[in-house]
Structures are given as C-alpha cells and as structure tokens.
Amino acid sequence: MTSTICTTNGIEDKVQKLVIEDCSQNGNTNHNDTEIEDMKDGDLKDELCDPDNPICVKFQDVSAAAYKIKSGIQRTPCQKSHMSALTGMEIYFKKEFLQFTGSFKERGARNTLLMLNKAQKKKGVIAASAGNHALALSYHGKDLGIPVTVVMPIVAPIMKVSLCRQQQANVIIHGADIGESKNLAMKIGRKQGLAYINGYDNPHIIAGQGTMGLEIVEQIADIDAVIIPIGGGGLIAGTALAIKSLSPKTLVIGVESEECASFKASLEAGRPVYTAAGPTLADGLAVPLVGVNAFETAKDIIDKVVTVSEDFIALSILRLVELEKAVVEGAGATALAALLGNKLPELKGKRVVIPLCGGNIDTTVLGRCLERGLAADGRLCKFVVTVSDRPGGIAELTKLIADLGVSIKDIHHERAWLKNAIFNVQVMCVVETRDQEHATQLHQLLLDNYSSVIWGPLTV
Asked: Phi/psi of residue 454, each to 5°?
C-alpha cells in the first residue's frame, strides 16, 4: 500500500460547529422515557461520523492532542521484551495497560473532553461502551468536572460497570449488544443536549489515540515495524498517522481476529463494509463496521493487515503472563499473536514495537484463556484410551504416563457406552506436559501400547 498522509483541513472548527448546533437544537434537558423511545432511528445520525463526509485527521491534530493531554495521562514505558530471542526479532512492548484505567482509550477520551466548548462541558457527554471507552470517559470526566453518562449492554462485565459508577458516571444498562446501547445513548443525547462521543471514530478520539505513536517514535530509534490491533480503527488510524509523519520508512501493520476481519474487508472493498462478528477472545476488536473517519485517515498509510486465530490469541495471553509478567486482555494481545502465529516472517531480525493496548480482562475469562493457551502450546492435552477393566488395567496406564514425566490433571473412566469388549473400560485423561515435543512423545507411547486411542479435540 502507498503511504500518503491526508492533508484535509483541520477538524477543530468542524467539530465545534456541529456540537454548538446540536446543543442549540437540543438544549431542553426535560424528557421522558416515552419520548426517547418514540424518537426515530433516522434522527440519530452522528454528524461527526458521516459516511458521506468522512473527516481525515491531520498530524497537526495529533500534535495538538499530545500537548493538551500530557498532564492527564501516563507516558507508558516501551521496553524490550523477553520474547525477542523466542521470535527472532528485537521486540519492544508499549505498555498501555499501565494507564490508570488499564487501556489506551484514556488518550482519546481526555482529548475529546478537553476539546468541548464551555457550554458542552457543563451539560456533559454520553457514550455507548461495554468497557474501556466507558471507563476512560468516566475517569477523565470526573477529573475534569464534566458529567458523563455511559450506556452499557447487559453483557458488560460487572467489574467495569462498578468501576464506572465509582468514577461518578451515570451508568445505564441497556441493550443485548453495543448497537442497541448506542441507539439509546444517541436518543438520550439528543433529548438532553449531551455530546455523543464515538469510542473509535470521533476525530478527537483518533487524534488522541495517535499520541501513542508520537511516544513510540520518541522512545525507540530506528523502528522497522509497529504492529497494531484493529477494532473500529481509531487506534491504528491515529498511531499510523503519527508514525508515518515522523518515520515514513517504518512499516505499520494491522492485526484483526479471524472472527471479525472488518478492516481487511473494508480495504478490499475500498470503503467501510459491514462484516459479521463471531465470538472472540479479542472482544474489544469485534467491531462489525469500522469507523468512517478512521478508515479515511488510515487506508493509505497502513502497509499490511493480517488476521489471527483464537488459539494464537490465547497463546499470546499465556506468553505475556509467563514471560512478561503482564496481564493483557485478548484485544491487547492480538498483535503479538501475529508473530507467534508466524503471520509476519518478513520481520525476522527486525526491530518491532507492539502496543499492549489493554489489561482489563475479566478474571474468569483470564482463567479460560490460560487453559486454552496451554492447550495451543501442547502443554495441556486430552485423550481417550481403551484399557482392560481387569485389576491393574488403569494402574498400568497411569504408570506409563508417570514414567514419561507427564502430570495427570483429570481422569475419568466410562463403561456403559463402550461398544467393544465387555471387559474393557474407556479412560479419558487431561494431562500436563512440558511442551509440544513432550506431548508428541506421550501420544506415540499410547499408540504403541493400546489399540484404541483418541487424541485431542475429537474428544471434546
């Protein structure tokens, strides 16, 4: 792809004009639920995210954002990784999960709040979010004295809902998904005169996220590539703009989950197109339609986009916990997954920066991710083997396993549904091995000693 940085007019005047017009038309804060529900969806167009008039963010906007937010956000470290030798690359991790609310979203949130005019700061803002955007707005809204309302879907983690309320945000739980939450948020915003803030496509959000790119270039010299996760596109748009402006030779590579490759599909179509999202560990990237402003800003300055499987996302979370002592959510670990999945072999021997974008992973989900990562790494294995039901049959199996140095995590035997010899028993085991080679040795040992062995996912 070519690396042409857009040079359209600045965004500040256009944004302020639209906000002022919206306030003047919707200054009355009195409303009732019936009026909100009766509002037509056609009235809910976000003028700052207009597909017919996309806003192309400029480098000057990113630079201005960096100056505005520097006193309110963390300048996160960008440190060499313990995984450099493992991957054959010189890897540096930009640790955005160390922001106060645990994600890069604070950059755009603070910038957008600071760009509001005085009247809008007094009225407040509203947004729809299942997590990180809501947290960032709530925290910085409280810090700046700006009222914040967030509409969160019913699937939003309880922990994130509680944290938003702790920051004195007005939290409304509504909608089976983020689309329904956004619909209500825009209706309430129109009725109460609240500025609606899109979490990935508002131009000031994009400019704020781009400040991460400025820090990366300042912290690490001679960068060959930066690999960035893509959801709605705001982070990669702002960051690519900053990096390409300061270091044109640096490759900017985007990564998406295979379950929702909406940006890649949009690049192929030449415009944002809807892409159905499947369930993914990188739930923060599951945005079916990328932002129009983000796409317009990023489409000509991204060098490559790749997709990664769920197994490698889980493996990335595991590697980060074990080797970096960093707890990172699925969306934040996706860029590393591209390297572990060997999707970018051309970067061998290169200096590569990866932002670890967020650390707000639910505790129960983390446990599942670690187990799935162990399975993907060949260190957690499952098999079913048919053994003799005579005394000593199962003992012989466990001795074989123990003698190889494999640890049994779970064992279960079944007789009723076995279709062959009556004096046999089917034994299902979940075991822990050192690595994939150790697992392969166990598999071969079982095949050498038993006539019926079912290995791996076929037993699920």
From this structure: -110, 120
Distance, CA of 315 to CA of 259 (rounded, Å): 16
The pLDDT, as a whole number, for residue 416 is 67
Average pLDDT, the chain: 88
pLDDT at 67: 96
Number of helical (H) and strand (E) elements in the chain, helices listed first: 19, 14
Placement of tokens 């990328």 in the chain: 290
**Tokens 């947290």, located at residue:** 135
Beta carbons within 10 angstroms of residue 220's beta carbon: 20
Cβ-Cβ contacts under 8 Å for 145 (sequence gap 6 or more): 121
Alpha helices in 77-175 (DSSP H): 84-87, 105-114, 118-123, 132-144, 158-166
Q: What SS3 state is found at 78? A: strand
This prediction's pTM? 0.84
Tell me the average pLDDT across 29-52: 65
Q: How far apart are CA 95 and CA 76, in angstroms?
A: 6
Q: Could you tell me which of 136, 137, 135 has the C-alpha nearest to residue 163?
A: 135
**Residue bearing the bigger pLDDT, 414 or 327:** 327
Are the CB atoms for 146 and 116 separated by under 8 Å? yes
pLDDT value at position 417?
65
Per-residue pLDDT averaged across 223-251, rounded? 97
355 close to 228: Cβ distance less than 8 angstroms = yes
Could you give the CA distance from residue 398 to residue 408 in angstroms, rounded to a whole number?
A: 8
In this model, does residue 20 exceed pLDDT 50?
no
d(CA 208, CA 110): 8
CB-based contacts of 4, cutoff 8 Å, min separation 6: 300, 301
Count of C-beta atoms within a 10 Å radius of residue 11: 23
156 vs 145, higher pLDDT? 145
